[in-house]
Input
Amino acid sequence: MKRNHVHVITSQMMDKSFLADVMKMRGGKNVLDCIQCGICAGSCPAAWAMDFTPMQIVRMIHLGMKDTVLSSSTIWICASCYTCTTRCPRGIDIPLLMSALKTTAIREKIPARIEIKPKFHKSFADIVQKYGRIHEPELFLKITNKTDVRALMQNAALGWTLLRKGKLKLKAPKVNQKVQWSSLFANVAKEESK
Output
């Protein structure tokens, strides 16, 4: 991973309303409590693949660097493992914040550096909303490049192995509490539109 540690921040990069907007997001209410201790960055198992550490993302939020934050690969690479949150002395919920930033990037049509990430994020959420849980074959079909024959063949072999071992179901799962599940997604959508 290559990180450029020297960044020149200009006034054109700063959106004064971004910090206030983030503080209204899920996971963003206590973003100003960050003391830049670096525990999140040091404990993140995916930091090696990120262009900015979680700590740097939080600092850029403080500075109003909206475009840099929303176009970073970090928000898409976060594995939501909660290692950072369990170790944060200030209780900042970084995975929830990263999820809200992803949603904002999608809503504002800011392209991700890793093209498939937003498609995966949206497809995953759509399938969970539809069935109440993930259905891997449908997710695969939604995000796969149908013209990449080599990748299709490799994934078909893996899919066959998973199917034989009972780890993959071709039929979509059923959820009994469809009404509660639908209302949960309606509440999340309502919160995100605020």
